[in-house]
Write a structure and sequence with these properties.
Blueprint lengths: L7 H15 L7 H16 L1 E2 L21 E4 L4 E6 L6 E3 L12 E3 L4 E4 L13 E3 L4 E4 L12 E3 L4 E5 L13 E3 L4 E4 L13 E3 L4 E4 L1 H4 L10 E3 L4 E5 L12 E3 L4 E5 L12 E3 L4 E4 L13 E3 L4 E2 L15 E3 L6 E3 L12 E3 L4 E5 L11 E3 L4 E4 L6 H6 L2 E3 L4 E2 L15 E3 L7 E2 L12 E3 L5 E4 L12 E3 L4 E3 L14 E3 L21 E3 L6 E3 L12 E3 L4 E5 L19 E3 L34 H9 L1 H34 L4 H15 L7 E4 L13 H4 L3 E6 L2 E7 L9 E7 L9 H12 L8 E6 L4 E6 L6 H5 L11 H20 L15 E3 L5 E3 L4 H8 L1 H7 L9 H5 L7 H16 L4 E3 L4 E3 H11 L15 H14 L10 H12 L10
Parallel strand pairs: 3-5, 4-6, 5-7, 6-8, 7-9, 8-10, 9-11, 10-12, 11-13, 12-14, 13-15, 14-16, 15-17, 16-18, 17-19, 18-20, 19-21, 20-22, 21-23, 23-25, 24-26, 25-27, 26-28, 27-29, 28-30, 29-31, 31-33, 32-34, 33-35, 34-36, 35-37, 37-38, 38-40, 39-41, 41-42
Antiparallel strand pairs: 1-4, 2-3, 43-47, 44-45, 45-46, 46-48, 47-48, 49-50, 51-52
The protein binds 2-acetamido-2-deoxy-beta-D-glucopyranose (2 copies).
The site of one 2-acetamido-2-deoxy-beta-D-glucopyranose has 9 residues, from β9.
Membrane topology: Single-pass type I membrane protein
Subcellular location: Membrane
Keywords: ATP-binding, Glycoprotein, Kinase, Leucine-rich repeat, Membrane, Nucleotide-binding, Receptor, Repeat, Serine/threonine-protein kinase, Signal, Transferase, Transmembrane, Transmembrane helix
């Protein structure tokens, strides 16, 4: 190997000597062969090859044809191709290469080559393809490069500069591909370019070219063009008509220049146009009518011009469109309903126009990623959005319009949403409770959108939120303590609302917080001193609240400007005039006898509804007596039903036989049996499961029978799941169900319910005859087993564990009720549906099944309810009143009582039957309620057990409206859990 800098003359003579000894395969032409070897060795000697890729280039060889990256013509033994792409070579393209007289293709792209492009490169007589892209080449482009033999010339992404030589394209009639993109080239584009009649690909983008190439270079005469990219230059002037002469044009990119006047009116006459980008120019006038002929177009961008006229109504017919950007113009008119036809559309931005009317609901049935309709004059409501949208949408900006009405509940299902901006509208809506549910949500901007209600507790369940802006609404209630979960938050801005309570100490956990804006609210108490520890805080404003007391020491509070603190009741700062009030905490009062009318010390609901409930309380009592009587009648019926159910559960049918039989028998019955489909939500391999359920059921073992079906435990194979154990529920249905659409949609909604206290639904298997639900398997069994079917060997549950189960169950249920609209109602709250993990964390299962089954088979439901007797709310049993989440709260109340007393909801004696709920109520009235506490749990704190029992009785109130919401239940349980010393006053 010749070291770099070895005298070339010496090298040359050595090579000659070597070559004459060996010859090329003993044949003629050895001198020319030596030229190739010599040329390559000399070429290499100017390069630095850090990874020794060119080590096989041995100057002792008489032919380079076996060297790596070198290709020869086998007939002549001459080098025809040299491809050294991406080898991290640096240095200059020196002499030597011109020796390769038969070279057709030279590709040195994606290296670190520097220096000028030597005019001698054009001495390679037969070069057709030259690729020097993505290097660090500098200087001017030699005019001889585009000589007659060359077909592909790619000099993009270098640092070439200066104007192009005027005569550069004098003889370029073979040139098909020319890219000079991403350099520092300037000046006019030479007029000789119009001679490159074979050119199909022209890319001059990202330079500093100026002038008007369409006039000066006659670009429209290059009729073979397929792609033309002049974007990101400083080209100017009008675009004349005539583009339609380029019949096969597929891509036209003129964005980011200074083109003016109107868009070419014959643009629609290029029938094959796929991508069209006129954005960021100075175009005026309307979008050409001929655009409606562009049937293949997928990308259509005219954003940031000065276009006017009406929004093209034909856009809905361009069904191949994927990307529409008309933003930043002055387009008027309405959005056509036909936009719902754009099934391929993923990106839609129309922001900053004058579009009015309403958003076509069909638009929200598309699989869009990004929707920006901001800063228009849209009115009406926000459409709900279909399952497709909820699977795809990542960014939604509807800000700055005149939209009204609720934020649709379906938004809670937008699982990929990162950016949500509905600010500056007139929604007049409640603060959406499901915000905390978005796993990836990073920015929420709901400023000035006429929202009311309180900030949801779970706003940061996913902890991805970075920006939360809720300023200028009518929000009430406190800043939730859970705001401390927003660990990614750096902008928290809640100003100009009616937020009350004190500033939560947990804000001090937001280590990334930079900006905190709380001005113009009703916040009271002292600013938590812990906030002084927030080191990244750059701006704080707490002015115009009811704050008192000292400022935190440290951090930004040292130098807080008085304007950020004024207008409070008495903040103590030497910088502020006026009073300084030290804070005395207000005791939190919990009045147990006020339950049912008013919940606890924190009053979150509206005062007026509470007081009306209060005043009608006595009238309701007599109704409740009536309901109690009818409930007693029902219970008698229920006893019979229960015995029937028990008999049927004993007749357990083997799952596999049963399932296979149903598949086989029906396939003989109807030849056109639709194939089974196994859908796993979080698996990439949700393949159609044509071969039937055998492989799934192979190892299945029955583990229980519930009201809605039999439960099996099974391990999914590696190819379907990840080899984990899953629980499979075979749903009871009486009919053959033909349509899977409803089922799929409903199960997917349930699948979205993810919470630490919910048993996640993993997927389903569907055939018309059989529906299976696949969920996680909970290894520690159910609360039913631990509480009521405990073997003598396992220890009884302690009070702390029971409390943990209660609180967790309440949280899971609260998530179902408050994070979905409409709420997911469990309908079947009972210990057997509370599963436990290793640490006794409860996980609710079977939620929402009734609704699901109702979709499938209306007959099933009425027959199944009675099996949960004792948990069923009276109004449900009567089936005359509206069924809502209050039914679950009743069931939860009964569950509390079972946990406290260790007794079943209904116990059957020799002759009588004890309804737990009534029993405890009587004991409480007699003042001996502690008598019924489960003695097996040993020591327990009365100050916790007593309020929990009272809570249970409020939950099982006969009057649905007297029962608290699950959110209130969670709050009350959390207050009960706090050590007594922290509470000012207990029950
Ligand atoms: C090119 O050179 C620069 C600095 O000289 C170096 O940082 C870079 O990694 C090199 N690139 C390649 C592809 O070798
Ligand atoms: C040149 O090389 C680059 C990178 O290797 C490649 O992307 C490009 O298509 C090549 N140009 C031509 C004209 O083949």
């Amino acid at each position: 190997m010749i070291p770099t800098g070895f005298p070339q003359l010496l090298c040359f003579s050595i090579l000659i000597a070597v070559a004459s000894l060996r010859g090329c395969k003993g044949d003629a032409g050895s001198l020319q062969l030596n030229d190739d070897v010599l040329g390559l060795i000399v070429f290499r000697s100017d390069l630095h090859d850090p990874f020794s890729y060119l080590a096989s280039w041995n100057e002792d060889d008489n032919s380079p044809c076996s060297w790596e990256f070198v290709q020869c013509n086998p007939a002549t033994c001459r080098v025809t191709e040299l491809s050294l792409d991406g080898l991290s070579l640096s240095g200059k393209i020196g002499r030597g290469l011109q020796k390769l007289q038969n070279l057709k293709g030279l590709s040195l792209s994606n290296n670190n080559l520097t220096g000028n492009i030597s005019p001698e490169l054009s001495l390679m007589g037969s070069l057709e393809r030259l690729n020097l892209s993505r290097n660090g080449l500098t200087g001017r482009i030699p005019s001889s490069l585009a000589k007659s033999s060359i077909k592909f010339l790619d000099l993009s992404a270098n640092a070439l500069s200066g104007p192009l030589p005027d005569d550069m394209f004098e003889s370029c009639f073979n040139l098909r591909f020319l890219s000079l993109a991403q350099n520092f080239l300037e000046g006019n584009i030479p007029s000789t370019l119009s001679r490159c009649a074979s050119l199909s690909n022209l890319n001059l983008s990202n330079n500093f070219f100026s002038g008007n190439p369409i006039f000066s270079s006659g670009l429209w005469s290059l009729t073979r063009l397929r792609t033309l990219d002049l974007s990101h230059n400083t080209l100017s002037g009008p675009i004349p008509d005539g583009v339609s002469a380029i019949h096969n044009l597929k891509e036209l990119r003129l964005q980011k220049n200074r083109f003016s006047s109107s868009l070419p009116s014959d643009i629609g006459l290029c029938p094959h146009l796929i991508k069209l980008d006129f954005s960021n120019n100075l175009f005026t006038g309307a979008i050409p009518e001929s655009g409606q002929l562009l049937n293949s177009v997928t990308l259509f961008d005219v954003s940031n011009n000065m276009l006017s006229g009406s929004f093209p109504q034909w856009i809905g017919d361009k069904i191949n469109l994927e990307h529409i950007d008309f933003s930043g113009n002055g387009l008027e008119g309405v959005l056509p309903l036909s936009m719902g036809n754009l099934k391929s559309l993923t990106y839609l931005s129309l922001s900053g126009n004058r579009i009015n009317g309403s958003i076509p609901p069909s638009l929200f049935d598309l699989g869009l990623d990004q929707v920006d309709l901001s800063r228009n004059e849209l009115s009406g409501s926000i459409p709900g959005g279909s399952g497709r949208l909820s699977e795809s949408l990542q960014a939604l900006d509807l800000s700055g319009n005149k939209l009204t009405g609720d934020i649709p509940a379906e938004m809670g299902l937008f699982s990929k949403l990162r950016y949500l901006n509905l600010s500056w509208n007139n929604l007049q809506s409640r603060m959406p409770p499901e915000l905390g549910y978005f796993q990836y949500l990073t920015v929420v901007d709901l400023r000035n959108s006429a929202l009311y209600g309180s900030i949801p507790d779970d706003i940061c369940d996913s902890a991805s939120l970075g920006i939360l802006q809720l300023d200028g609404n009518s929000l009430t209630g406190p800043i939730p303590e859970e705001i401390g979960n927003c660990s990614s938050l750096y902008l928290l801005s809640l100003s100009h609302n009616n937020i009350s309570g004190s500033i939560p100490e947990s804000i001090s956990m937001l280590k990334k917080l930079k900006i905190l804006k709380l001005e113009s609210n009703q916040l009271s108490g002292e600013i938590p001193p812990e906030l002084g520890r927030l080191e990244n805080l750059l701006a704080v404003n707490v002015s115009y609240n009811l704050l008192t007391g000292r400022l935190p020491v440290g951090g930004i509070f040292q130098n807080l400007d008085p304007s950020a603190m004024i207008g409070n009741l008495g903040i103590c700062s030497p910088l502020l005039k006026g009073p300084c009030k030290m804070n005395v905490p207000k005791p939190l009062v919990l009045d147990p006898y006020a339950y049912g009318n008013q919940i606890g010390g924190r009053n979150r609901g509206s005062e007026s509804s509470r007081s009306s409930r209060n005043s009608s309380h006595h009238r309701f009592l007599s109704i409740s007596a009536i309901i109690a009587i009818s409930a007693a009648v029902l219970i008698a019926i229920g006893v019979m039903v229960i015995s029937l159910v028990n008999i049927s559960t004993r007749r357990r049918i083997a799952f596999i036989d049963n399932a296979l039989e149903s598949v086989c028998s029906s396939s003989t019955r109807s030849g056109s049996l639709s194939a089974g489909k196994l859908v796993l939500f979080d698996s990439k391999t949700s393949a159609d499961w044509i071969s039937g359920p055998e492989s799934l059921l192979h190892k299945a073992a029955e583990i229980g029978v519930g009201a809605f079906g039999t439960v099996y435990k099974a391990s999914l194979g590696e190819e379907l799941g990840d080899g984990r154990t899953l629980a499979i529920k075979k749903l009871v249905t009486t009919n053959i169900i033909q349509y899977s659409g409803d089922f799929d949609r409903e199960v997917r909604i349930l699948g979205k319910a993810r919470h630490q206290n919910l048993l996640p639904l993993k997927g389903y298997y569907w055939t018309p005859q059989m529906q299976l639900l696949v969920s996680e398997y909970a290894p520690n069994g159910s609360l039913q087993a631990k509480l009521h079917e405990r073997s003598t060997s396992s220890p009884p549950l302690s009070w702390p564990i029971r409390f943990k189960i209660l609180l967790g169950t309440a949280k899971g249920l609260a998530h179902l009720h408050h994070s979905f609209r409409p709420p997911i109602i469990h309908y079947n709250m009972k210990p057997s549906n509370v599963l436990l993990d290793e640490d006794f964390n409860p996980k609710l299962s079977d939620f929402g099944l009734i609704r699901l089954l109702t979709k499938l088979d209306k007959h099933v439901i009425s027959n199944r309810f009675q099996s949960a007797l004792g948990y069923v709310a009276p109004e449900l049993a009567c089936q005359s009143l509206r069924v809502n989440e209050k039914c679950d709260i009743y069931g939860f109340g009964v569950l509390i009582l079972e946990l406290v007393t260790g007794k079943r909801s209904v116990e059957y004696g020799e002759e009588n039957m004890v309804i737990l709920n009534d029993h405890v109520r009587v004991l409480l009235e007699q003042g001996s309620v502690l008598d019924c506490v489960d003695s097996s749990m040993g020591e327990y704190p009365e100050e916790e057990v007593l309020p929990v029992v009272k809570l249970a009785l409020v939950c099982t109130s006969q009057i649905p409206s007297s029962r608290p919401s699950m959110l209130e239940v969670v709050q009350i349980l959390q207050v009960i859990k706090t050590p007594i010393s922290h509470r000012m006053e207990a029950f």
